[in-house]
């Protein structure tokens, strides 16, 4: 490499150059002068921290983290710094990255909430109910999906959010009553978590950490169990590709009489739109796993994947060749020279830094749906978005909702939204009971002025009952960070719905939908509740194809079967039910149930097509008679 080229690259990417060469002393001296370019990206789309972690340089990574380098950035392939740290297999490096990530999340939360409450202080007060329905297009799985209604109170700089869904335990969703109250003050916010079942209130002051609380990082350091769990689980990144999304007005009617579709949602006339080309992408990496962990992961993914209708592509990187340098073999197995890496004109030809990837990419297309009202009494940017921002500070689910509703939507308020969360799970969000107009709400007084519906909310709504026990009052509660990210929630949701492991997972809906707390990907276990659901699905399917009360439906009439045939059929059904309950064939049973569900769906589609064809024939005949 010429000295001139070396000097030019070093001048263009000073932090990256030092990170590449693991020159942590020079890097520290440079950062002490200025951190202005700490988030600069190189020509391959990596920040200096992302580069250092990918190369496995521990000391350089520590220095960048201590100087505030953003842990939540993504590279060009959609992977975060945490993903790359897991891929290195270095537990110490992963612990450092997770600790700083959690500290940054905490700082963002406590600094962001007071600002959000200030934003909504001068907006009109309101009350609204947000109904979240979790649905699945897989018929037998849809029975297990929960629903919940968030009740949102806003008065001045105070916000209260009520929920009733507490968590998931094996195959049962646990119910309870919780309220989360945020009270905005000058430079801080007071948060109260009210448990109405145990009659307890936990109070926390949320404000930016002063210097004396720097040692909080020690309490945020992940446990050895959490580190081990990450290093023995796949790296999974799930995101919705919004680049190709387009919105189309839905049509209703038949043939030449189709018109723009409208529906009434909670008393409001709404235009119905579909968002097409919505792609849900899931990337899974396993290069850091042992052969035993890879085998366990592969077994856990069958037999659902073939049923989901996803397109799966395996990705691989150049393997490189060992040259005796262990350090370089782990971080740069393809022996890429810095003048190659930092030169945008050089095509690396599939080579890359970091451990060679063993990845699969699954894509599935969805149609998101929108019901838009042009004269809705609430303002999306002024009233609803700050609330969604408040809930999405630590929530990937609400962040997805925010990202979706902040796209270039058609005109109108999204009264109802249906968006995909995961490959088997959709979320349907409906706004209703604005300002307690439809149903009375204690503490909310509905006001009508010049045709406008407003409300007044009593101050008692933002106070916990005096009889409740108060915990942590007026103190900075030690921040409880959950180690699991959205990718682990994605993995665990699929496993819990399909395999329903016996691992206890008691989390509040606020934690489940805001901090993504869940168990690490479970191993395959028998679940009797799922077997019962399969039996019910099997029975429903048999009824749908004509088996009902000992008769077979033909052309809408019930044809009685001989008694002997009925008895044989009952014995066969009983034997099948016993086989389901015993779980004798494991994944084969599940595959069979999924096939039956698919057949039921196809049968329903066939009937719908026949009805459409019949309507078309009737219409043609009526036109012929004229």
From TrEMBL:
Record domain Ankyrin repeat: where: 160-468
Classification via SUPFAM superfamilies: Ankyrin repeat
Gene3D superfamilies reported for this sequence: Ankyrin repeat-containing domain
GO biological process, one term: exocytosis
Chief place of localization: membrane
Keywords, sorted A to Z: ANK repeat, Cell membrane, Exocytosis, Membrane, Neurotoxin, Presynaptic neurotoxin, Repeat, Target cell membrane, Target membrane, Toxin
Compartments where found: Cell membrane; Late endosome; Target cell membrane
One Pfam family this sequence matches: Ank_2
Ranges of compositional bias, category Basic and acidic residues: 600-611
ANK repeat feature ranges: 44-76
Function according to Swiss-Prot or TrEMBL: Ubiquitin-binding protein that specifically recognizes and binds 'Lys-63'-linked ubiquitin. Does not bind 'Lys-48'-linked ubiquitin. Positively regulates the internalization of ligand-activated EGFR by binding to the Ub moiety of ubiquitinated EGFR at the cell membrane.
Protein name: Putative gpcr-chaperone
């Amino acid at each position: 490499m010429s000295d001139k080229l070396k000097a030019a690259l070093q001048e263009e990417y000073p932090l990256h150059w030092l990170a590449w060469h693991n020159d942590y002393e020079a890097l520290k001296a440079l950062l002490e002068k200025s951190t202005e370019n700490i988030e600069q990206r190189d020509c391959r789309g990596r920040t200096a921290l992302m580069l250092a972690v990918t190369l496995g340089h521990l000391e350089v990574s520590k220095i960048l983290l201590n100087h505030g380098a953003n842990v939540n950035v993504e590279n060009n392939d959609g992977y975060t710094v945490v993903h790359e740290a897991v891929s290195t297999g270095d537990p110490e490096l992963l612990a450092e990255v997770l600790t700083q990530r959690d500290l940054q999340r905490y700082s963002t939360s406590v600094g962001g909430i007071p600002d959000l409450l200030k934003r909504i202080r001068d907006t009109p007060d309101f009350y609204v109910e947000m109904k979240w329905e979790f649905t699945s297009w897989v018929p037998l799985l849809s029975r297990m999906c929960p629903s919940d209604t968030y009740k949102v109170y806003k008065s001045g700089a105070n916000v209260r959010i009520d929920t009733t869904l507490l968590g998931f335990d094996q195959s049962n969703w646990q119910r309870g009553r919780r309220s989360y109250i945020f009270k905005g003050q000058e430079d801080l916010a007071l948060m109260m978590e009210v448990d109405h079942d145990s009659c307890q209130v936990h109070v926390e002051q949320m404000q930016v950490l002063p210097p004396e609380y720097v040692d909080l990082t020690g309490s945020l350091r992940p446990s050895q169990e959490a580190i081990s769990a990450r290093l023995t689980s796949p790296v999974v990144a799930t995101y919705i590709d919004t680049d190709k999304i387009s919105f189309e007005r839905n049509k209703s009617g038949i043939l030449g009489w189709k018109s723009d579709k409208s529906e009434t949602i909670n008393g409001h006339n709404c235009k119905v739109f579909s968002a097409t080309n919505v792609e849900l992408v899931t990337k899974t990496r396993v290069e850091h796993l042992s052969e035993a962990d890879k085998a366990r992961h592969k077994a856990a993914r069958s037999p659902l994947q073939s049923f989901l209708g996803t397109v799966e592509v395996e990705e691989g990187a150049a393997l490189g060749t060992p040259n005796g340098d262990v350090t370089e073999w782990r971080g740069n197995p393809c022996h890429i020279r810095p003048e190659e890496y930092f030169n945008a004109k050089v095509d690396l030809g599939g080579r890359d830094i970091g451990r060679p990837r063993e990845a699969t990419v699954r894509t599935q297309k969805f149609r998101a749906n929108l019901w838009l009202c042009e004269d809705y009494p609430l303002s999306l940017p002024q009233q609803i978005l700050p609330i969604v921002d408040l809930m999405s500070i630590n929530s990937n689910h609400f962040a997805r909702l925010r990202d979706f509703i902040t796209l270039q939507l058609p005109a109108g308020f999204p009264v109802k939204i249906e968006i995909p969360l995961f490959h088997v799970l959709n979320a349907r969000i409906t706004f209703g009971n604005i300002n307690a107009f439809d149903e009375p709400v204690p503490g909310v007084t509905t006001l009508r002025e010049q045709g406008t519906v407003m409300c007044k909310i009593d101050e008692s709504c933002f106070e916990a009952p005096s009889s409740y026990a108060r915990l942590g009052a007026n103190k900075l509660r030690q921040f409880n960070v959950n180690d699991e990210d959205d990718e682990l929630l994605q993995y665990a949701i699929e496993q819990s719905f399909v395999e329903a492991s016996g691992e206890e997972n008691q989390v509040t809906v606020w934690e489940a939908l805001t901090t993504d707390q869940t168990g690490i990907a479970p191993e395959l276990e028998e679940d009797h509740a799922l077997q019962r659901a399969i039996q019910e699905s099997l029975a429903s399917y048999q009824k749908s194809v004509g088996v009902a009360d000992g008769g077979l439906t033909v052309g809408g009439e019930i044809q009685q079967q001989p008694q002997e045939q009925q008895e044989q059929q009952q014995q066969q059904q009983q034997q099948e039910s016993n086989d389901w309950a015993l779980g004798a064939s494991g994944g084969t049973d599940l595959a069979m149930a999924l096939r039956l569900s698919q057949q039921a769906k196809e049968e329903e589609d066939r009937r719908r097509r026949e009805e459409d064809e019949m309507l078309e024939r009737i219409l043609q005949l009526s036109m012929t008679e004229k």
